[in-house]
Write a structure and sequence with these properties.
Strand 3 and strand 4 form a beta hairpin. This protein has a four-stranded mixed beta sheet, with helices on one face. 16% of the residues are buried. The protein is globular, with a radius of gyration of 14 Å. With 97 residues, the protein is an alpha/beta fold.
């Protein structure tokens, strides 16, 4: 699905209850892709001059993270040896306005 539009890709992941793991930073926009609606979104941030070792470190970090926490309903940004976790955007009710 490398040529599929972002919206189609995330919808397939949703329907199949799969976590999306991508280097596409567009998926870190919680306003557009609220993590609460998905089985997890993981955005891998790599340096501009990426090397195989960068991918290895990021994937190893992701695996360790998955062993200790659940990504369902969350956005994780993996960069190097750390994971930043972002919660879903809360739905606003009419009472909030």
């Amino acid at each position: 699905m490398t040529a599929a539009p972002d919206r189609e890709l995330i919808e397939v992941c949703h329907q199949e209850e799969r976590c999306l793991v991508t280097a596409d930073r567009d998926f870190s926009d919680r306003g557009r892709y609220n993590p609460a609606n998905y089985s997890g979104i993981v955005v891998v941030r790599l340096p501009s001059q990426v090397q195989l070792a960068d991918w290895h470190e990021a994937i190893s970090t992701l695996i360790l993270g998955l062993e200790s926490a659940d990504v369902v309903g969350k956005l994780w940004v993996v960069q190097g040896d750390r994971i930043q976790e972002y919660q879903p955007i809360a739905e606003r009710s009419l009472d909030d306005e």
